[in-house]
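note to self: dont lose this again. the chain is below, predicted strucutre after it. 136 aa total, dont forget to put it in the shared folder this time
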Amino acid sequence: MANAADDIGGFDPMSAIPASHALTPVVVRVNEQRVARGFWPKLLKVARRIPFTTELVAVYYCARDPETPATAKAMLMAALAYFVMPMDAIPDFLAGIGYTDDAAVIATVLVLVGRHLKPHHKQAAQDMLDRLTADA
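---
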């Protein structure tokens, strides 16, 4: 049986990606897979504990929008993949500071490509969070 690394050009989707390879097509696919598998499960676990949930979901919708340019999508997916990864610069389980690095990554990507984040992405994010709150 082939492993996930074989399916995506030899990269293991759970290992760190060297910065020099950050926007290569294979790495973009790895990030897309990480986000596809892990974004909603992780968000549902932590949404009430992080103050940037709306921005995070808006970034997700922007990254999934066919109108968003490919380079911007790749950067947005990389930021979302960082959020999904279980190991990062500041472990998420540390109370009070665990998500500060994730917030910084999201803030940075918004500075770089935020002009592609449209009002309909923000509205879709708010609508989704309203539905999740109503279901809880």
